[in-house]
Amino acid sequence: MEEKTSFEPKDNNYLVGFEESEKMFLEAWKNKSLHQSWLISGIKGIGKTTFAYKLARFLLSDDAEKKEDLSSLDISPDCNTFRQIAKGSHPEFKLIERGYLKTERQKIVKAIKDGNYMSDEELASLKKSNVISVDDVRTINEFLSKKSADGKWRVVLIDSVDEMNSSSANAILKILEEPPHKSLILLISHNPALLLPTIKSRCNKLHIAPLKENQVASLLRRYRANLSEDVIKKIASISGGSIGKAISYVDGGALAIYDEIYALATSGKNFKTADMLNFCNNAVADDENYRLVKELILKFLSEQVRALNKVEETTDVYEKAVKTFKETEGLNLDRKQAIMTIMVAICRIY
Questions:
Q1: Which helix (H) or strand (E) holds 155?
Q2: What is the C-alpha separation between 144 and 147, in angstroms, rounded?
Q3: Residue 296 — left, alpha, or beta (φ > 0 → left; ψ -120 to 50 → alpha)?
Q4: Under DSSP, is residue 189 helix (H, G, I), strand (E, B) or coil?
């Protein structure tokens, strides 16, 4: 079995495409002009949270303030600060994210009482709340009210601020209005347009652009080293500049699904009914598969529009697909029928 290099933000110190952002942060720190609240935005999966962890480790490392000629934010994975933050045990670091549902928390408590600590994979499989609660945000006040050891920084990472409801958003707004001295608040956002204007106005904004295809390819070689160059190139081309998306595509078998969509589409009106039925049956095998197929169908159509291939007809089918998927989810309609309707419409334009 292939050994997969970890790219979990808490364990990862490797970034591509963040050079200018790192330089900006480092210069602000050196000049003692570091803003206390940073809104780090961009599409999902480009490394925003990994970058935020890197900032936190840098500020909280034992020797960071002793270096006058720093040229990087890199901290050794062997240092105590790195290990503590990765384990969630650093006293000056606090992560705010969606909490586990009550029933799932009970599973964790039971495992601890039984001496059977859950692995990262087991924890990842547990269901979480849809939002970051106001109670979770209020714990930040208590955390920041305590004096840090030796007058060092305290860092709060909110991943992500998009997942707050109105109550929790207003609670964080009050904290951003007057953060305590030497506290750093890092807010991750995948869609800053939806945030309260008052939250954005109180933060130093750092927007991260999607990665370039060659950067995604480079990261794929690092994190999924057994892939062929042909697969790497294809995955990088459909990932939309997101290494997180690219890896999920690799692990979820997305390339095979994308190729199947392409094969069915280009068979046109002469598609084989058995092939279509087999594709649709597999597409609705489970929630994750349906989500992936839905995403890849829309990606295929958008790629066809960009390729200037029957633009008007393809755009019409794209809009029909978006509407059909939305109605299917909103009205709890038949998913298989939705997939088949859209795929037949795609075939008719070829």
A1: strand 154-159
A2: 7
A3: alpha
A4: strand
Helix (H) or strand (E) holding 188: strand 183-189
pLDDT in tens, 57-91: 999 986 655 656 677 898 889 989 999 999 999 99
Q: How many residues does the chain have?
A: 350
State the pairing for strand pair 183-189/37-41: parallel
Radius of gyration of the chain from its Cα atoms, rounded to whole angstroms: 23
CA dist 299 and 212 (Å) reads: 17
Q: To which residue do tokens 């849809």 refer?
A: 130
pLDDT > 70 fraction of the chain, expressed in percent and rounded: 95
Confirm if 53 and 10 have CB atoms less than 8 A apart: yes
Give the closest residue to 280 by CA, choosing from 298, 268, 294, 267. Answer: 294
What whole-number distance in Å separates Cα of residue 258 and Cα of residue 235? 10
Taking Cα atoms as reference points, which of 240, 263, 239, 264 lies closest to residue 252? Answer: 239
Going by C-alpha positions, the residue among 274, 286, 266, 255 that lies closest to residue 340 is 274
